[in-house]
Design a protein that fits this description.
Layout lengths: L3 E3 L2 E3 L9 H4 L44 H18 E4 L28 E4 L9
Antiparallel strand pairs: 1-2, 3-4
The protein binds protoporphyrin IX containing FE.
Keywords: Heme, Iron, Metal-binding, Monooxygenase, Oxidoreductase
Cofactor: heme
Protein name: Cytochrome P450
Length: about 130
């Protein structure tokens, strides 16, 4: 909306700025072993995803932040909880957890580079799986 200066960089009015949240999420100055898939790093951490902790921005931040973040989080938690409640999960017999590749394919979004193959078995009474 107006000329401004952000951490020493002059930015002209009207400039379109893309924030590289992917790169921030892998910055070794901000994260220990940033290339490691390690969800445990968040246990006991005060960092949240609501746009105030700039090192973790899955929903963006500020006035254009995702307005659906609350629904998004609830849908993911509900879906995951249902899958874990309804099924026992394991890897195929020929796959070890430590060999599982967590590599990502580059693009607008970052899907897995290699699809996850998992074996699921119902763990609840049979009639609960009928629609
Ligand atoms: C886990 C699920 C979701 C993720 C990771 C996500 C992520 C994002 C991100 C990164 C942005 C861009 C924010 C920015 O420009 O700084 C965005 C924008 C937006 N999201 Fe989501 N989102 C999710 C779910 C949803 C849901 C469930 C809705 C609606 C029901 C929604 C509606 C929108 C809308 C309308 C915008 C544009 C906001 C604007 O430009 O002013 N999102 N989202």
């Amino acid at each position: 909306m107006e000329d401004c200066n952000v951490v020493g960089y002059d930015i002209r009015k009207g400039t379109r700025v893309f924030v590289n949240a992917w790169s921030i999420g892998r910055d070794p100055l901000l994260w220990e072993q940033p290339q490691e898939f390690c969800p445990n790093r968040f246990i006991g951490s005060n960092i949240n995803v609501k746009g105030t902790d700039f090192e973790l921005l899955p929903f963006g931040a500020g006035r254009r932040m995702c307005p659906g973040y609350n629904l998004g989080l609830k849908m993911i938690q509900l879906s995951l909880a249902n899958l874990l409640h309804g099924f026992n999960w394991k890897l195929p017999d020929n796959t070890k957890a430590e060999d599982l590749s967590m590599e990502e394919a580059f693009g607008m979004i970052t899907p897995r580079k290699f699809p996850l193959v998992a074996v699921m078995e119902p763990r609840l009474p049979h009639h609960l799986y009928k629609f």
